[in-house]
Protein backbone atom coordinates (compact mmCIF):
# COMPACT_ATOMS: atom_id res chain seq x y z
CA UNK A 1 0.00 0.00 0.00
CA UNK A 2 1.21 3.50 -0.72
CA UNK A 3 1.56 5.99 2.11
CA UNK A 4 -1.00 8.53 0.85
CA UNK A 5 -3.61 5.81 0.24
CA UNK A 6 -2.97 4.47 3.72
CA UNK A 7 -3.43 7.91 5.29
CA UNK A 8 -6.65 8.46 3.37
CA UNK A 9 -8.04 5.16 4.69
CA UNK A 10 -6.88 5.67 8.30
CA UNK A 11 -9.57 4.84 10.85
CA UNK A 12 -9.13 5.00 14.59
CA UNK A 13 -6.03 5.86 16.57
CA UNK A 14 -2.65 4.89 15.16
CA UNK A 15 0.98 5.28 16.22
CA UNK A 16 2.85 5.65 12.93
CA UNK A 17 6.59 5.77 12.33
CA UNK A 18 7.62 7.71 9.21
CA UNK A 19 11.17 6.99 8.01
CA UNK A 20 12.33 9.15 5.13
CA UNK A 21 15.25 10.22 3.00
CA UNK A 22 13.43 12.87 0.96
CA UNK A 23 12.26 15.65 3.30
CA UNK A 24 9.82 17.17 0.82
CA UNK A 25 7.97 13.91 0.22
CA UNK A 26 7.89 13.22 3.96
CA UNK A 27 6.37 16.66 4.44
CA UNK A 28 3.61 15.83 1.93
CA UNK A 29 2.81 12.70 3.94
CA UNK A 30 2.78 14.65 7.22
CA UNK A 31 0.61 17.41 5.77
CA UNK A 32 -1.85 14.87 4.27
CA UNK A 33 -2.15 13.24 7.72
CA UNK A 34 -2.85 16.68 9.26
CA UNK A 35 -5.24 17.82 6.52
CA UNK A 36 -7.27 14.60 6.76
CA UNK A 37 -7.54 15.12 10.51
CA UNK A 38 -8.74 18.70 10.09
CA UNK A 39 -11.37 17.59 7.58
CA UNK A 40 -12.52 14.99 10.15
CA UNK A 41 -12.90 17.72 12.80
CA UNK A 42 -9.81 16.71 14.78
CA UNK A 43 -7.44 19.12 16.48
CA UNK A 44 -3.95 18.92 14.98
CA UNK A 45 -0.46 19.78 16.16
CA UNK A 46 2.74 19.85 14.14
CA UNK A 47 5.88 19.77 16.29
CA UNK A 48 9.25 20.39 14.66
CA UNK A 49 12.65 21.94 15.21
CA UNK A 50 12.11 23.88 11.97
CA UNK A 51 10.93 27.49 11.95
CA UNK A 52 7.20 27.48 12.73
CA UNK A 53 6.49 30.38 10.35
CA UNK A 54 8.07 28.47 7.47
CA UNK A 55 6.03 25.37 8.33
CA UNK A 56 2.80 27.39 8.38
CA UNK A 57 3.62 28.90 4.96
CA UNK A 58 4.36 25.41 3.59
CA UNK A 59 1.05 24.13 4.98
CA UNK A 60 -0.83 27.00 3.37
CA UNK A 61 0.91 26.32 0.04
CA UNK A 62 -0.01 22.64 0.40
CA UNK A 63 -3.65 23.66 0.63
CA UNK A 64 -4.46 23.64 4.33
CA UNK A 65 -6.99 26.50 4.67
CA UNK A 66 -6.04 29.48 6.81
CA UNK A 67 -9.31 29.14 8.75
CA UNK A 68 -7.79 26.23 10.69
CA UNK A 69 -4.95 28.46 11.88
CA UNK A 70 -7.33 31.32 12.71
CA UNK A 71 -9.66 29.13 14.77
CA UNK A 72 -6.67 27.36 16.40
CA UNK A 73 -7.73 23.91 15.20
CA UNK A 74 -4.12 23.49 14.15
CA UNK A 75 -1.01 24.55 16.04
CA UNK A 76 2.59 24.55 14.84
CA UNK A 77 5.12 24.34 17.65
CA UNK A 78 8.85 24.84 17.26
CA UNK A 79 11.06 22.89 19.65
CA UNK A 80 14.80 23.13 20.22
CA UNK A 81 17.60 20.63 20.68
CA UNK A 82 17.83 19.29 24.18
CA UNK A 83 21.43 18.79 25.21
CA UNK A 84 22.89 17.08 28.23
CA UNK A 85 22.61 13.68 29.78
CA UNK A 86 19.88 11.26 28.75
CA UNK A 87 17.98 11.69 32.04
CA UNK A 88 17.80 15.46 31.64
CA UNK A 89 16.78 15.21 27.97
CA UNK A 90 14.05 12.72 28.94
CA UNK A 91 12.76 14.97 31.72
CA UNK A 92 12.54 18.02 29.42
CA UNK A 93 10.99 16.01 26.58
CA UNK A 94 8.32 14.37 28.75
CA UNK A 95 7.40 17.72 30.22
CA UNK A 96 7.07 19.26 26.75
CA UNK A 97 5.02 16.31 25.43
CA UNK A 98 2.67 16.44 28.44
CA UNK A 99 2.18 20.17 28.00
CA UNK A 100 1.30 19.73 24.31
CA UNK A 101 -1.11 16.84 24.95
CA UNK A 102 -2.79 18.63 27.86
CA UNK A 103 -3.97 21.38 25.51
CA UNK A 104 -5.79 18.93 23.22
CA UNK A 105 -9.23 17.36 23.25
CA UNK A 106 -9.77 13.93 21.76
CA UNK A 107 -9.73 13.10 18.91
CA UNK A 108 -6.54 14.74 17.71
CA UNK A 109 -3.56 14.20 15.44
CA UNK A 110 0.05 15.04 16.12
CA UNK A 111 3.09 15.02 13.85
CA UNK A 112 6.16 15.16 16.01
CA UNK A 113 9.85 14.71 16.42
CA UNK A 114 9.96 15.66 20.08
CA UNK A 115 13.73 15.13 20.32
CA UNK A 116 15.39 16.78 17.33
CA UNK A 117 18.96 15.75 18.16
CA UNK A 118 18.65 12.01 17.46
CA UNK A 119 22.08 12.18 15.86
CA UNK A 120 23.58 11.80 19.35
CA UNK A 121 23.64 8.67 21.48
CA UNK A 122 21.81 10.42 24.34
CA UNK A 123 19.25 11.91 21.95
CA UNK A 124 18.33 8.64 20.20
CA UNK A 125 18.39 6.68 23.47
CA UNK A 126 15.95 9.15 24.96
CA UNK A 127 13.78 9.06 21.82
CA UNK A 128 13.56 5.28 22.13
CA UNK A 129 12.49 5.59 25.76
CA UNK A 130 9.81 8.14 24.79
CA UNK A 131 8.58 5.92 21.93
CA UNK A 132 8.46 2.85 24.15
CA UNK A 133 6.49 4.68 26.85
CA UNK A 134 4.11 6.15 24.27
CA UNK A 135 3.50 2.83 22.56
CA UNK A 136 3.03 0.94 25.81
CA UNK A 137 0.42 3.47 26.98
CA UNK A 138 -1.13 4.23 23.60
CA UNK A 139 -4.62 3.09 24.61
CA UNK A 140 -4.75 6.10 26.96
CA UNK A 141 -3.59 8.48 24.22
CA UNK A 142 -6.47 10.45 22.73
CA UNK A 143 -5.46 10.50 19.10
CA UNK A 144 -3.12 9.47 16.32
CA UNK A 145 0.56 10.24 16.11
CA UNK A 146 3.10 10.33 13.28
CA UNK A 147 6.72 10.22 14.48
CA UNK A 148 9.01 11.39 11.68
CA UNK A 149 12.61 10.27 11.27
CA UNK A 150 15.12 11.47 8.72
CA UNK A 151 17.15 8.26 8.42
CA UNK A 152 20.36 10.20 7.69
CA UNK A 153 20.17 12.02 11.05
CA UNK A 154 19.82 8.94 13.26
CA UNK A 155 23.00 8.30 15.26
CA UNK A 156 25.24 6.55 12.75
CA UNK A 157 27.33 4.06 14.77
CA UNK A 158 24.28 1.89 15.56
CA UNK A 159 21.78 3.23 13.02
CA UNK A 160 20.40 -0.18 11.99
CA UNK A 161 19.80 -1.16 15.61
CA UNK A 162 18.08 2.16 16.38
CA UNK A 163 15.81 1.88 13.34
CA UNK A 164 14.76 -1.68 14.22
CA UNK A 165 13.93 -0.59 17.75
CA UNK A 166 11.97 2.45 16.52
CA UNK A 167 9.98 0.28 14.10
CA UNK A 168 9.00 -2.08 16.92
CA UNK A 169 7.50 0.83 18.89
CA UNK A 170 4.88 1.75 16.26
CA UNK A 171 1.68 0.14 14.95
CA UNK A 172 2.55 1.01 11.38
CA UNK A 173 5.72 2.11 9.60
CA UNK A 174 5.95 4.18 6.44
CA UNK A 175 9.21 4.11 4.46
CA UNK A 176 9.87 6.78 1.82
CA UNK A 177 13.23 6.18 0.14
CA UNK A 178 12.62 8.65 -2.74
CA UNK A 179 10.04 11.22 -3.74
CA UNK A 180 6.83 9.45 -4.67
CA UNK A 181 7.97 6.03 -3.43
CA UNK A 182 6.60 4.59 -0.23
CA UNK A 183 5.79 1.36 1.52
CA UNK A 184 3.49 0.89 4.49
CA UNK A 185 4.02 -1.98 6.89
CA UNK A 186 1.40 -2.66 9.55
CA UNK A 187 2.78 -4.22 12.71
CA UNK A 188 -0.54 -4.83 14.51
Description:
The chain has 188 residues and is α/β, with parallel strands linked by helices. The protein has one domain (3-186): P-loop containing nucleotide triphosphate hydrolases (Rossmann fold), CATH 3.40.50.300. It is built from 7 helices and 7 strands, in the order αβαβααβαβαβαββ. The chain has helices at residues 3-8, 23-39, 52-62, 67-70, 86-102, 121-136, 159-168, and strands at 15-20, 43-48, 74-78, 108-112, 143-150, 172-176, 183-186. A 7-stranded mixed beta sheet has the order 3-2-4-5-1-6-7, covered by helices on one side. Helix 5 (86-102) crosses helix 6 (121-136). The longest helix has 17 residues, at 23-39. The radius of gyration is 15 Å and the shape is globular. The model has no long low-confidence stretch (mean pLDDT 89).
